[in-house]
Amino acid sequence: MTEQGFTTTRATSIVGISYRQLDYWARTDLVRPSLVDAAGSGSRRLYSYRDLLELRVIKSLLDAGIKLESVRKAFNYMREHMNGDIAAAHLVISGSDVMVCEGGELIDVMNRAGQGVLVNVLALGGVKLSLDQQIRAQDEQESREQRPPTPIASRRAV
């Protein structure tokens, strides 16, 4: 069974980001499409579900006020050190710092000394649930738009 792929247009709609953001993140290796990468001008990228999950997490972090550089460092850490699904991770946001809670241990992925005030804990499982709901809603919308109109039964005068 092959994995469902998401076009760039569909990915931007589901995640809630612009094409320019998605293109920039792919070109700078933040999130590259894992199914089909760009292969020159005019080629199409194809994103996996996991790619969409990562994109949604990145958007959530940026929306929470985290700088893109910090998001990039957090993702590099998670890709290098975490073997499991990123949706099972918990990110702790402290000011502009991002920490990963792994196995009961809090790891400062920004490698800065000092203490910060705990602002938010982003449970990535909730981001996964939100992404799933958005995909289902878009699938239903596309299905409704593709159905032919139901003809009205003609009536005869008796």
**Rg value:** 20 Å
- The proportion of strand residues reads 5-15%
Apparent shape = globular
At CATH level 2, the architecture is Orthogonal Bundle
Write out the strand line-up for the largest beta sheet, numbering strands in chain order. Answer: 5-4-3-6
Helix content: 40-55%
CATH class categorisation:
Mainly Alpha
Q: End-to-end distance, in Å?
A: 56 Å
Number of helices: 5
Integer average pLDDT: 78
What's this, in brief?
This protein has 158 residues and is α+β, with helices and mostly antiparallel strands. The chain has a single domain (6-144), classed as Multidrug-efflux Transporter Regulator, Chain: A, Domain 2 (Orthogonal Bundle). It has helices at residues 8-15, 19-27, 49-63, 68-81, 124-146; strands at 6-7, 46-47, 90-94, 97-102, 105-108, 120-123.
Description:
The chain is of the alpha+beta class. It has one domain (6-144): Orthogonal Bundle (Multidrug-efflux Transporter Regulator, Chain: A, Domain 2). The chain contains five helices and six strands, in the order βααβααββββα. It has helices at residues 8-15, 19-27, 49-63, 68-81, 124-146, and strands at residues 6-7, 46-47, 90-94, 97-102, 105-108, 120-123. Strands 5-4-3-6 form a four-stranded antiparallel sheet. It has a two-stranded antiparallel sheet with strand order 1-2. Strand 4 and strand 5 (105-108) form a beta hairpin.
